[in-house]
Amino acid sequence: MDWKRALKQGARAAAAKAGAGAVRAGRERLDATPGPIFGWRVWLLPIFFWPLMLDLPVEIIRGNAKHLVGTLLGLGLSWYAAALMARGRRRMGARLFGVAAGLAAGLAAGISPPIAVALGFGAWFGVRLLTADLPEAEPPPAPQPEAAKPDQLIGPRRQLALITARAPRLPLGLLLLEAARAMQGVIEDLEARPARLHEARRFLAVHLDGLSRIVERLDAGAAPPETLPSLLSDLTASARKLRSELRVAESEALDIQVKVLAERLRQEEA
Amino acid sequence: MNRNTLSPDRFVANIPLPLRLLGGLGLLGLCAWLPAMIALFR
Question: For an interface test with A, which of B10, B12, B28, B33 has the most A Cβ atoms less than 10 Å from its Cβ?
Answer without folding.
Answer: B28
